[in-house]
Specification:
Layout (H helix, E strand, L loop, with lengths): L5 E12 L2 E12 L3 E5 L6 H8 L7 E6 L2 E2 L5 H7 L1 E3 L12 H10 L5 H7 L1 H22 L14 H13 L5 E5 L7 H16 L3 E5 L5 H5 L2 E6 L2 E6 L1 H6 L1 H11 L1
This protein binds adenosine-5'-triphosphate (ATP) and magnesium ion.
The site of magnesium ion has 3 residues, from α1.
Length: 257
């Protein structure tokens, strides 16, 4: 059945930084067209999971398959071209650019050789630029921040940066979008708006993995949740199962001690 298909399969994934094992033998399957929550205390390995899947860091061991093709050790650009896009916990944007240019840069990033296209096919490049600008404006509209287009990224506050990052990640037309703490620093109303955006993204046929500490957000929007703790997968299941799991409660209580 189409809906039960895994879009991402991670097998025995390990990532060490020197002696520190940030991910230990992780197996995860992400089902197509679902919202999958990834939670765990600070330092659990959530961002590292994104960094390895998106090709930013090579894994120490294990295999990653996307749409049934192996992507382990492929360059990050290639992985983006294949349809995986992400945001960063640190609100990473290109400085000294407008918001519109920042969103557009999410598309140039995946063009095979933008400089070559510019010198050898100037008219085609100009048309391409027009199309990219049009879709960047559509992305800003989709997120509800059309009025940000001409602002400089340096003048955005934290919450605004988070929204621009989502628009930037969407312009490459991903099949899988990985959001790292998309509601961090947000109040209830802002978080609700982001939840709505995440649902609308899923309804467009994009699979979403959301990393979050926000215990209001995660159970409400996730179809399925995986819990990491010290690099181990300690639990997985529906939001109801996760909320009752004693191992999860213990991991979170431990954090608050
Ligand atoms: N580039 C790196 N070099 C060395 N150690 C790293 C690196 N990236 C992550 N780590 C370590 O790996 C572990 C997992 O970090 P990670 O950032 O994945 O955690 P996290 O679950 O995202 O935590 P948080 O909720 O605080 O964002 C931590 O101990 C961290 O210090
Ligand atoms: Mg993190």
């Amino acid at each position: 059945m189409e809906e039960e298909m895994a879009i991402l399969e991670v097998k025995n994934l390990c990532k060490s930084f020197g002696g520190l094992q940030a991910l230990k033998n992780i197996d995860i399957e992400i089902q197509k067209n679902k919202i999958h929550g990834l939670i765990g205390p600070n330092g659990a390995g959530k961002s590292t999971f994104f960094n390895v899947v998106s090709g930013l860091y090579p894994p120490t061991d294990g295999n990653i398959y996307f749409k049934s093709k192996e992507i382990t050790n492929l360059p990050a650009e290639e992985i983006t071209r294949m349809g995986i896009s992400r945001t960063f916990q640190a609100g990473k944007l290109v400085p000294n650019l407008t918001v519109l240019d920042n969103v557009m840069s999410g598309k140039y990033h995946i063009s095979p050789n933008p400089v070559k296209s510019f010198f050898f096919q100037p008219s085609q490049f100009k048309n391409q630029e027009k199309d990219i600008k049009t879709s960047a404006l559509e992305m800003l509209k989709f997120i509800g921040i059309s009025d940000f287009a001409e602002r400089w990224t340096s003048e955005l506050v934290w919450v605004e940066r988070q929204l621009v990052q989502i628009a930037r990640a969407l312009i490459s037309s991903p099949d899988l979008l990985m959001l790292d703490e998309p509601t961090s620093g947000m109040g209830i109303d802002e978080s609700k708006a982001v939840m709505d955006i995440i649902r609308r993204i899923r309804n467009m046929g994009i699979t979403v993995i959301v990393v979050s500490h926000d215990m209001n957000l995660i159970p409400e929007i996730s179809d399925r949740i995986t819990v990491l703790d010290f690099g181990n997968k300690i639990s997985e299941g529906s939001p109801e199962q996760i909320q009752k799991d004693p191992r999860v409660l213990e991991a979170y209580l431990g954090e608050n001690k």
